[in-house]
Amino acid sequence: MGFYEQLGVRRVINGAAAFTLVGGSLMPDEVLDAMRSASQSYVDMHELHAAAGARLAELTKNDAAYVTSGCAAALVLGTLGAITKGDPRLIVRMPREGSRD
Description:
Blueprint: H1 3-7, H2 29-38, H3 45-60, H4 71-84, H5 88-91
């Protein structure tokens, strides 16, 4: 019995390409191999994030790129970047949920 069957979750046919509602996308073996390889070491996450963004920008022929956990995070970070024009001093001054600022 497979993982989803053990949870009582039915499989569906994805007729919508990379669509979050049905799990996003299936990962090719090359991606899974890279994930397995990366899981064998600890690294500085800030350094990894910067390197991944630089490589993605290079591959997509853009000035910069920023890897996020998903579309909602990208929208939040993009809005924050637009409001603050990327100035870290302004970013840290943004109000936080529940703050009294």
